[in-house]
Design brief:
By secondary structure, this protein is mostly helical. Helix content is 83%, strand content 0%. The N and C termini lie far apart (48 Å).
Amino acid sequence: MNALATFPASRSSTQIKPPGFLSNVCTVGLRELRDAVRSRWFILYTLAFAVLGLAVSFVSAAGAGNAGLSGFGRTAAGLINLVLLVVPLMALSAGAATVASDRERGMLSYVFAQPVTPFEVLLGKYLGLAGSLLACLCLGLGVCAAILAWKGHATQPSSIIWLAALSFLLALAMLSVGVLISVLARKASVAVGTAIFVWLTLVFVTDLGLMAGAMTMRLRIEELFAISLINPLQVFKMWSLHSGEASLDVLGPAGLYAIEEFGSALHAMFSACLGAWIVLPLAAASLILSRKSPL
């Protein structure tokens, strides 16, 4: 009699026990990853990366006085500017649409009705989109390197791996900014439009803004380098050039100042800057989402 009385209670307590943190994050992340991989933007960006990478290789070979495809070492240097244009746009647009689109469709209120916290939902979405961006970068750069190797041109695995790693860090930083925009916006169209505006601002501020600011405001080299560290695109560019065969002196006096003043500590500075762009916008988005109504 006592055993029969206690069985339903133990069963009900098992049913109402909420799932763990990792389980919730993985569930949301796998759903976001599956939807992202099935979407058209994933296929288009992957194909664009491979095609544009091969085009950059042809241009690099023509600049060197050769016909056909050049090795990946020269191609990786040309891909830096390509990454500066494509990867931020890809990450910002993907992040901007994630929360705002669910809110607009009424899906967000349904998700929050489940035993999950806003941070778990946001982190799961972020990790799912990060996985799709990583797959896109690896497929695009991998196809480019495979075709170069198939054509008999020398490839440098360290160059492609390092470029993919830095590109992924830049994508994570821009994805955090996109998620923050998505949390603040009420409609997906507004979020995507804001993300494109932020992308244009960062792209033009990267070089043109620094040149104009240095000329009009007569900035010192120390101030110019400090401003460069604020822009994640500029940090990626400096880190890529510093890690490759090129030197930071191609960036002018600011690059020479950075090498002479900081030397080997530049890697830690660049990683800290990109890490701040990854953590801070995501933390702000989580805080805002936890206090904001999902409706």
